[in-house]
Amino acid sequence: MSLRSAETQTEMRVPLIDLSAQHRSLREQLLVAIERVVDSQQFVLGPEVQALEEGIARYCHTRHAIGCASGSDALLLALMALDLKAGDEVITSPFTFFATAAAIARLGARVIFVDIDPRTYNLDVKRVESAITPRTRAILPVHMYGQCAEMKPLQEISERREIPIVEDAAQAIGAEHDGCRAGSMGLLGCFSFYPTKNLGGAGDGGIVTTDDDKLADRLRTLRVHGGRTEYEHSEIGINSRLDSIQAAVLGVKLKYVDEWSKARRERAEQYTQLLHEASLTEKVVPPFVNRDSRHIFHQYVVRVPQRRDELRDHLSARGISTKIYYPVPLHLQKCFQYLGYRERDFPAAESAALETFALPLFPELSKAQQVYVVQTIQKFF
Ligand SMILES: *Cc1c(COP(=O)(O)O)cnc(C)c1O
């Protein structure tokens, strides 16, 4: 099916993400897994969580994985394990989900934003070094939309300046940079199992990966109120454990995550090709893919320098859902006003917030739906 032969395509509905298609094929396996947990009556941590932690560690090429209640908590726990405290600084991106910066601020540390690379939407590594001060305790790159930040230069800075890297890999499970897996390139890696992530549970969940035995041990304590044994607390931790039901569900899905990410990648390539065929790539700029990376396409984000919102309305009126990730850069959020940043401080992040949006993408998205999306874009212009 080409764009031309689809001329007569009638209107269809294209959701941003459709979890039901995936669910239908897994339904029986998921119910068996959930039943197993219900019958065991062990609902928090336990063997199901341990098995998942081993599976994720293997998948992410790390020695350890420590389950917790969400991706947001994974970030919080990782920074707690580094003893982050008031007065410390952490360098991160202003163009990310709120939780990335919130984890830093929650611990009383100062968020130091560095602008993004306008092509990849990842931290602009050229700007990182000049943001380092004697108080910098960590660098927190985010692997946006499923493509790893440029980790090589970051690792070089990290080693030379002795500042650890914590990866926000919430959108990037299985993504690779130069053959290395997301979550294995920093001292700690943080993942989310929110239902719409590439590997999503039946509720909230998260995990921290690391090769460091001591940090792994510390994280296992921090997630249970800082106690190695019940009622003996060596430090003040939090309650952030992974539920057994989530682990059982995720264990079923982990087997398919490569297949799903491959399907996402193929659909992303398909979109790019269709946009090229329609000569739209100046008006709707496809995502930039680093040659030495394995992009898992958590999102397919296009840049529309002109009339973005009109185009989104046009698509929406024709049954096509899109979404802006993220409409307000974090340095302009009310809660971060105290940091003293202003408009125009981070032009690349600000223009990304004004010019980009995500097209529908999920493993079961059909070619006909993709053709319809691009055709509808073509009609708008
Ligand atoms: C989803 C996400 C998180 C938070 O994960 P939750 O499980 O929703 O708490 C953090 N950072 C990024 C970049 C995310 O996309």
Describe the SSE topology.
Elements: H1 19-40, H2 46-60, E1 64-68, H3 71-81, E2 89-92, H4 98-106, E3 110-113, E4 136-140, H5 151-161, E5 166-168, E6 176-177, E7 180-181, E8 188-192, E9 206-210, H6 213-222, E10 227-229, E11 232-233, H7 244-254, H8 257-277, E12 293-294, E13 300-303, H9 308-317, H10 347-355, E14 356-359, H11 367-380
Parallel strand pairs: 2-3, 2-4, 5-8
Antiparallel strand pairs: 1-9, 6-7, 6-12, 8-9, 10-11, 13-14
Helix pairs in contact: 1-7, 2-7, 3-4, 3-6, 8-11
The site of pyridoxal-5'-phosphate has 15 residues, from helix 3 and helix 4.
Main sheet properties:
4 strands, mixed
So what's the overall shape? globular
Q: Note the total helix count.
A: 11
CATH homologous superfamily assignment of the largest domain? Type I PLP-dependent aspartate aminotransferase-like (Major domain)
Proper CATH architecture of the largest domain: 3-Layer(aba) Sandwich
pLDDT averaged residue by residue: 96
- In helices, the fraction of residues equals 25-40%
Assigned CATH class of the largest domain:
Alpha Beta
* Distance separating the two termini: 22 Å
Q: What's the Cα radius of gyration?
A: 21 Å
Helix-strand sequence:
HHEHEHEEHEEEEEHEEHHEEHHEH
